[in-house]
Amino acid sequence: MFRGNHPTRVDEKGRLKVPAEFKREIEERYGTKFYITSENGKTAKVYPMEEWEKIEQKLLNMPNSNPSKKRLLTATSFYGQNAEMDSQGRVLLPQMLREKAQVIGDVAVFGMLTFLEVTNMDAIRQEMDANPLTDADADVLGAYGL
Hints:
Elements: E1 2-5, E2 8-10, E3 15-17, H1 20-29, E4 33-37, E5 44-48, H2 49-60, H3 67-79, E6 81-84, E7 90-92, H4 95-101, E8 105-113, E9 116-120, H5 121-130, H6 135-143
Antiparallel strand pairs: 1-8, 2-8, 3-7, 4-5, 4-6, 5-9, 8-9
């Protein structure tokens, strides 16, 4: 499981330096192949290929006529690309996604259990200030024992 925030940088060529804490687990558990995408262009989601393929299997069970499936596939294909981590622990983020999400320079890399989420450092600070956890969130989470 990926957890925590490990800030790093995306270099001028668009390569994310995978934080050592995540790199270790990725190499031990998943290998070096990824699918990098987004549903909305605000953040980059870095899925080990094994985890992305689980999502694809679930999508296969939905009818092709389902408009939600179509919208998700359109967005994740538009922003998405296969990638492979190099020997220095870098992975190239798709150019269209880098530009839209502004993930160049200092970024936050969040462990989101089964994938990594990469976001512009300034944008996430603003998002967290504007949308903190609420009492309603606590109620919903409490229903799940959290």
